[in-house]
Design a protein that fits this description.
40% helix; catalytic activity; alpha/beta; Nephrocystin 3-like N-terminal domain-containing protein; Nucleoside_phosphorylase_sf; 15 strands; eleven-stranded mixed beta sheet; Rossmann fold
Length: 505
């Protein structure tokens, strides 16, 4: 244990897991484990393991037991970055389903940008159309500091090999009780099952494993006395050992590419193949990454434990969690603390995202509000009022505002204040003075609404009873607290039905 606990501000890396096995593997990979910190945020329901890998202080967080999916992952992230304000990026480390034949059990998959995709794609985010399912939205790319570290890592692996096996051996020595589950064992067998498509397609193993030798074998079957050979991938749905691409047991192959994330457990090979075809080829399917990548700077690392088909089981869970954690440890050893010191914290990034979304939403709301008000009445008496009020000479009409009749009327008299005069006497200008005075006097008072109409004999078509009331409603709606519910409902209902506005609405 560390000699003394650090502060919440001293931790810069968030390590997120979905399962207890993944958390165990992560904890076992720590170079040192730190004492728990005093509770600073009572609303944070996450459980943390604190420690260090190299010179990085790491916070390991896990989804609550029994909760999986993008929504749970997003909730854990929000609490993590609020409690640990200096977190710069996250690593989502754990198990996933591989897409064969390229990816095998016991391999490691890392999310990296591919073409138009940022590394993680939420395959179930979209809308159903007449021509099929159309995916909508996009997720964030992994942080540049991590992508740069991956390029260094690739070079190291080509020249010297990875350190995954080394770290698992160290795990077995340091934590003997974990060795049989999280380190390599010969009991693990990679048996590949045929895709469960009802009809052969380009995604089935028949197409994948078709070779010139199969064509020759088919021609030979027509020779007299020739016995029909048993072709690989057509073994009457029996278990088929993976052929080709020889692997050394316990020596994972690392893949970089697209990860498909969603809120549904995939246990169907045909569904997996359909998603693969839709996205143009991914290397892994899982359930939490999309909840993080949408607004949290992170990298996804998955150890492959199954093929996301009906033969899904738990046999490879421990080892897959172990190799993913080992890869994450090797990555952190490459990333230098100085490279992330100047990066904004994840909390700052999230705040910027929320502020941007807030500004966009405000603009959208303003546009929608203007649309509703214009629907109520196209006439803007505010422009007329401004024009008339500009004509008022300074000091003119003050006598009118001081009249007892006007003051009594303002104080709540039920009488109607009527001012009459000959044409051109200045009644309209005095009215603009009164309107401006009332608007200033009762500004901010939600219990009082100021409405007005400037009649013009040249616009009689806009001054019938219904249109005048619509204009008054428009003015009230522009400042009323509850207008977002009533007029919005009114306009949506009438527009959808193709009706004109009616007073009863």
């Amino acid at each position: 244990m560390a000699s003394k606990p650090l502060s919440y501000n001293d931790y810069g890396v968030g390590w997120i897991c979905a399962l207890s096995e993944e958390r165990t593997a992560a904890t076992a990979m720590l170079d040192e484990k730190h004492d728990p910190l005093p509770i600073s945020n009572p609303k944070d329901t996450n459980s943390y393991t604190l420690g260090a890998i190299g010179k990085h202080n790491v916070v390991v967080a896990c989804l609550p037991e029994g909760e999986i999916g993008t929504n749970s992952a997003a909730s854990v992230i929000m609490q993590l970055v609020n409690t640990f304000p200096s977190i710069k990026f996250g690593l989502l480390v754990g198990i996933g389903g591989g897409v064969p034949p390229r990816v095998r059990l016991g391999d490691v998959v890392v999310s990296t940008p591919v073409g138009e995709y940022p590394g993680v794609v939420q395959w179930d985010l979209g809308k159903a159309t007449g021509t099929g399912f159309v995916r909508t939205g996009s997720l964030d790319r992994p942080p540049k500091v991590l992508l740069s570290a991956l390029t260094t890592m690739k070079t190291n692996h080509e020249m010297e090999g990875h350190k995954i096996s080394q770290f698992l051996e160290e795990l077995a020595k340091k934590w003997p009780r974990l060795a049989s589950k999280y380190a390599w064992t010969d009991r693990l067998k990679d048996t590949l099952f045929e895709s469960e498509n009802a009809k052969p397609t380009n995604n089935t193993w028949q197409a994948i494993f078709a070779t010139p030798w199969q064509t020759i074998a088919t021609l030979m079957s027509y020779l007299p006395g020739h016995k029909e050979p048993e072709l690989i991938g057509r073994a009457n749905n029996a278990d088929t050992e993976v052929m080709g691409d020889e692997r050394t047991p316990g020596d994972p192959k690392i893949h970089y590419g697209l990860i498909a994330s969603g809120n549904q457990v995939i246990k169907d090979g045909s569904m997996r193949d359909e998603i693969n075809a839709r996205l143009g080829g991914q290397v892994c399917v899982e359930m939490e990454a999309a909840g993080m990548m949408n607004n949290f700077p992170c990298l996804v690392i998955r150890g492959i434990c199954d093929y996301a088909d009906s033969k899904k089981n738990d046999h490879w869970h421990g080892y897959a969690a172990g190799i993913a954690a080992a890869f994450a440890k090797e990555l952190l050893q490459i990333v230098r603390p100085a490279e992330i010191d100047g990066e904004p914290s994840a909390r700052d990034v999230l705040n910027q995202v929320y502020q941007s979304v807030g500004h966009i939403q405000l603009k959208v709301d303003k546009q929608e509000e203007k649309h509703i008000l214009d629907w109520l009445s196209p006439i803007d008496y505010g422009l007329l009022h401004s024009d008339y009020y500009k004509r008022l000479q300074p000091g003119t009409g003050e006598w009118f505002l001081k009249r007892k009749e006007f003051q009594d009327w303002i104080k709540g008299s039920n009488d109607t204040l009527f001012c009459h005069g000959i044409p051109g006497a200045g009644k309209t200008i005095l009215a603009s003075l009164a309107i401006n005075h009332l608007s200033l006097k009762f500004r901010g008072n939600s219990g009082i609404g100021i409405t007005y109409v400037y009649f013009n004999y040249k616009r009689q078509e806009d001054q019938d009873f219904q249109k005048l009331l619509a204009s008054l409603l428009k003015q009230l709606a522009g400042v009323a607290i509850l207008y977002q519910k009533a007029p919005r409902s009114c306009t949506m209902n009438t527009q959808n039905k193709g009706h004109e506005r009616h007073l009863r609405n």
